[in-house]
Amino acid sequence: MSEKKVLLKIENLVKYFPIRAGVFKRIIAWVKAVDDVSFEIYEGETVGLVGESGCGKTTIGMTLLRLYEPTSGRIIVGNEDTTYYFMPYFKAKKYIKKTYIKKFENEDPEKFTGIDKKYYELYKQLGESGFYSKLLSNIKEKRSEFRKTMQIVFQDPYSSLNPRIRIKTIVSEGPVMHKVIKKSEIIDKVKAALEEVGIHGDHMYRFPHQFSGGQRQRIGMARALLMNPKLIVADEAVAALDVSIRSQVINLMLDLQKKHNLTYLFISHDLSVIKYISDRVVVMYLGKIVENAPKKVLFEDPLHPYTKALMSAIPVPNPDYKKKRIILTGDVPSPVNPPSGCRFHPRCPVAKEICSKEEPPLKEIQPGHFVACHFPGSLK
Amino acid sequence: MNTELKRTLRKLFKNPSAILGFSLLTFFIIVAIFAPLISPPINPMFPDENGNPMKLDNPYIMPILSWSSDPVPPSKDHPFGMIAGRDILYGVVWGTRTAFKIGLIVVTASTFFGIIIGSIAGYFGGWVDEVLMRITDVFLSIPFLLAAMVLTTILGSGLDKVMIAMIIFGWMATARLIRANILQVKEEQFVLAAKALGIKNYIIILRHILPNTIFPVLVQATMRLGSLVITAAALSFLGLGAPIGYADWGSMLNYTRNYILGASGQALAYWYTVFYPGIAMVLFVLAWNLVGDALRDVFDPKLK
Ligand SMILES: Nc1ncnc2c1ncn2[C@@H]1O[C@H](COP(=O)(O)OP(=O)(O)O)[C@@H](O)[C@H]1O
Ligand code: SF4
Ligand SMILES: [Mg+2]
Fold first, then answer.
1. Boundary (domain end) residue, out of A243, A277, A311
2. For an interface test with B, which of A143, A149, A164, A212 has the most B Cβ atoms less than 10 Å from its Cβ?
3. Residue A127 falls inside a structural domain
4. Over chain A, what is the mean pLDDT?
5. How far apart are CA A206 and CA A224, in angstroms?
6. Which of A205, A213, A303, B295 could make an S-S bridge to A377, C-beta 3.0–4.6 Å?
7. pLDDT above 90 (res A172)
């Protein structure tokens, strides 16, 4: 793993939910659940996404999997822009026009990088209409490819499996639909997938209620795994489990990662779990990324006051070691009317005047260590 | 599937109340089917030109067999006794058909409307939901008996009119139930997981949403089937339902109004006039309730 390849790149992702009221259900405000978030996930790594409840972690996961349509931003998987894959035809066309055609006509091609550069070559080669049809053709295959690339494991073991169908169908319906496995192979493949996650293969004829919470999460893993995905989003996948079972499931996830070269986006509000599993950690606060760093760096030298405060709340195994606890006062403010400037300023112990006026950009302070704070490292 | 079915059946027949329910229901079905054999629709009082008893034009109108309208106690020819010159057994037997007719038609139609209204509200949400649910509330706020009386005053009395009233005022519970279930199931993580797997919409609806919403509605409909017969009987008792002499349990009880208290000094003298139609009704309601209960157990995946 000398050269790391970017698997997923999220650019300026925004997701607002409308709040409606009145007889006509007019939109009266927006919940700014995810507000201009950018980060990358490299092949084979585990990115931990952490933050207090309500700060937009689940929304990011759901938007990545296109269970929510993004309000704006780009989601690039491998070398393809997948943002428009699930839009209706005319919306997709509009998106391509806005994102690429306008840019290609008006901006200096020398400055294009990454996907823009790649698509510009295509555009030059095929012309405008050829470029549209190239991107918009075979949309069904593109969607299918997308589904095979990215899968999700949910939090609630009791709601994540349909109680009325057998494990065999639960685990195989996706892969069969996308022709990842043939109908004739269902039994063998389901059996293998179940045994890989530590469930007896013969139990494929059972119904979900015949399993415990931990076993159900394993079945959820098997369901994702049989699609042969590259990326698995695990949204609080162990949060509902007992502590003893929790570590078993986490270890299973780590084993599977090695075996299948999986990439994880591991979402949790629990820093101790994040610390155990992640290679890199993204810290979110109120719809924004406040810090993004390799795990070691982040836990040894957290630079954002919010990260620091979260860490001081982790229980320390050694009672002799006295850690100063930074108490986070108050609740997370509402994402409908987030605080001006730095969104953390009403709760930040080291806030200064500028903090409520200017929003701190996410800056790369050291290579690979991003922080969004006017005074990084000032909270000791 | 086959083993599954077998297991379900085996479980069903271990449950005494389910057995009782299904036996009673089977019994009523047999009586309804073989009504013409059990109580032939003929009137021996009026021979036709060949001297045979006259065939009835409408078997649901109980033939008048005697000119005395006082109750006649059970005898060999009339094992349930007679009232108003009519054979009580005949009324109970043909009344079974009436009960099925009322129950099945009203429940099917009102459940159908309820499912449509509730699903539209649940799926589309927003203002569509708002409007439909306010209409439902309005219907729910009107007392049923009052509404039925007003409606039969407008439409005229009769069994069909009563059934129309019961359909118009019978869909709301179903609509609310299916709406609530759809709203809940739509948010379930297994529906999201299916979407993330790229499962087609119609399969998501058929495999993941409907099976988790429709069964409680079916159970509810089954339970309602029996109790509707009581409602219809109440309306008949009030003189709004079936016409005089119609083979309907409720209308038969209507005859007994004058005899319910018995003769002077013998409180229970005319017990058979109430007992047979009454017990038929009670057992009919019981049968559907037990069957509904059994179905609930079968459909509930957690109890498998
Ligand atoms: N479907 C939705 N409609 C409206 N608001 C939502 C929806 N989903 C989440 N939110 C809001 O968005 C914010 C972020 O929620 P979420 O992503 O679930 O946070 P987390 O997973 O970090 O706890 C919360 O304020 C939540 O109330
Ligand atoms: S920008 Fe200011 S308010 Fe925000 S975290 Fe940094 S110091 Fe605190
Ligand atoms: Mg969440």
1. A277
2. A164
3. yes
4. 92
5. 18
6. A303
7. yes
Q: What is the pLDDT of residues A152-165, one digit of tens each?
A: 999 998 899 999 89
Domain presence at residue A49: no
Angle of the B2-12 helix axis to the B271-299 helix axis, nearest 10:
140
CA distance B154 to B161: 10
Residue A199 has pLDDT above 90, yes or no: yes
> Which ligand sits closest to the CA of A372?
2
Q: Which of A284, A342, A347 to mutate to test the pocket of ligand 2 (most atoms within 8 A of CB)?
A: A342
CB A279 within 8 Å of CB A47: yes
Lowest mean pLDDT of A124-133, A217-226, B270-279, name the range: B270-279
> Which of these three, A221, A246, A277, is where a domain ends?
A277
Can you read off the two tokens belonging to residue B139?
């219907």
Query: B-chain residues within 8 Å CB-CB of A170?
Result: 190
pTM to 2 decimals?
Answer: 0.78
**Could you tell me the strand order of the sheet in which A288-294 lies?**
A150-153, A231-235, A263-268, A46-50, A280-285, A288-294, A369-371, A363-366
Is the minimum distance from the CB of A31 to ligand 1 under 6 angstroms? yes
Q: Measured in angstroms, how far is the CA atom of residue A233 from the centroid of ligand 1?
A: 17
Probe site for chain A from B131, B185, B188, B189 (most A CB atoms < 10 A):
B189
- Look at strands A26-42 and A263-268 and give their pairing: unpaired
Going by pLDDT thresholds of 50, 70 and 90, the confidence category of residue A1 is very low
Give chain B's contact residues with A (Cβ, < 8 Å). 126-127, 130, 188-190, 192-200, 203, 207-208, 211-212, 301-302, 304
Residue A27 Cα to ligand 3 middle (Å): 24
Do the chains contact at B301 and A209, CB–CB below 8 Å?
yes
Residue A161 lies in a domain: yes
| Per-residue pLDDT tens over the stretch A11-41 | 999 999 999 887 777 889 999 999 999 999 9
> A174 and B126: CB-CB below 8 Å?
no
Judge if A206 and A107 occupy the same domain.
no
The answer on pLDDT for A57 being more than 50 is: yes
Helix runs in A109-212, H state only: 114-136, 139-149, 167-177, 186-196
What amino acid occupies position B215?
A: F
Chain A residues near residue B207 by CB distance under 8 angstroms:
162, 165, 173
What is the DSSP code (8-state) at residue A43? Answer: T
Average pLDDT over residues B198-227: 88
**Residue with the nearest Cα to atom 9 of ligand 1?**
A59
The superfamily (CATH) of domain B17-47+55-303 is MetI-like (1.10.3720.10)
Residue A152 falls within a domain, yes or no? yes
A46, β-bridge pairs? A264
Q: Which residues, in sequence order, are bridge partners of residue A289?
A: A284
Answer yes or no: is pLDDT of B276 > 80.
Answer: yes
Choose among A176, A144, A174, A147: nearest CA to A162: A174
Q: How many domains does chain A have?
A: 2
* Residue-level pLDDT at B97: 93
Q: Where are the domains of chain B?
A: 17-47+55-303
CB-CB under 8 Å, A177 with B199: yes
Band of pLDDT at residue A170, cut at 50, 70 and 90: very high
Same domain, A93 and A167: no
Query: Which residue from A25, A177, A207 is facing B126, i.e. has the nearest CB?
Result: A25
By mean pLDDT, which of A287-301, B30-44, B96-110 is the weakest?
Answer: B30-44
Residue A329 scores a pLDDT above 80 = no
pLDDT at B40 over 90: no
Query: Is the CB of A144 less than 8 angstroms away from the CB of B198?
Result: yes
- Separation of A289 CA from ligand 2 center, angstroms? 13
| Residue with the larger pLDDT of the pair B108 and A22 | B108
Give the range of the structural domain holding residue A230, as residue numbers without chain letter.
147-277
CB-based contacts of B228: which residues, under 8 Å, 6+ apart? B102, B103, B106, B107, B166, B170
